[in-house]
Amino acid sequence: MSHMPLTCRLAAAAEYPRIEEMIIESFEPITWAKKLDARTGPLNGRDWRTRWHSRMQHIFQTQIILAGETEGEILAASTGTMDRDCALGYIDLLGVDRRFQGRGYGRDMLRGMIAYMKELGALYVNLDCLSDNETANALYRAESFEDIARQIRWFRRV
Question: What CATH homologous superfamily does 7-142 map to?
Answer without folding.
Answer: Gcn5-related N-acetyltransferase (GNAT) (3.40.630.30)
